[in-house]
Design a protein that fits this description.
Layout (H helix, E strand, L loop, with lengths): L8 H17 L6 H8 L3 H7 L1 H69 L5 H7 L2
Helix pairs in contact: 1-2, 2-3
Length: about 130
């Protein structure tokens, strides 16, 4: 009599391959442990009895890791470019601010002078020359 829990090698391979597909489709973390749990076998069984499937899973893990690394690198490059543009904009804004502050100070001085001339507290040199003094 055969053990009712006994599996055929072909059934086990099929179950492991189905588990690999399910883990990939589920967007979960691909690992030998996750596949083994889903297939109802031990990770050691996959490592020792089905090294070709273990290598396939390791390849998927590497691909997933590479994909994540590349995505993070691309995001970092984009953020650095945004940062560079913002720094340039900040430098231009600071230059504009300094220029406007200078123009503003000149205008404030001119307004003060004109107020003084209008109230008679300040005498314009140009008016004195015209009066023949």
């Amino acid at each position: 009599m055969s053990d009712p829990k006994a599996r055929s090698r072909k059934n086990t391979v099929d179950e492991i391959q189905q588990a690999i597909a399910q883990v990939q489709a589920g967007q979960g973390k691909v690992s030998i442990s996750a596949v083994a749990k889903l297939a109802g076998v031990t990770p050691a069984l996959i490592h020792n009895t089905y090294p070709d499937l273990a290598e396939k899973i390791r390849g998927l893990v590497g691909k997933a890791t590479r994909t994540q690394r590349d995505a993070k690198h691309d995001a970092l490059v984009r953020e650095r470019e945004i940062n560079r543009a913002l720094r340039q904009e900040l430098a231009e804004s600071r230059a504009d601010l300094a220029k406007l502050a200078s123009v503003n100070q000149v205008l404030l001085n001119e307004v003060a002078l004109l107020k003084g001339v209008a109230t008679g507290k300040v005498v314009s040199i140009l008016q004195l020359k015209g009066a023949g003094v």
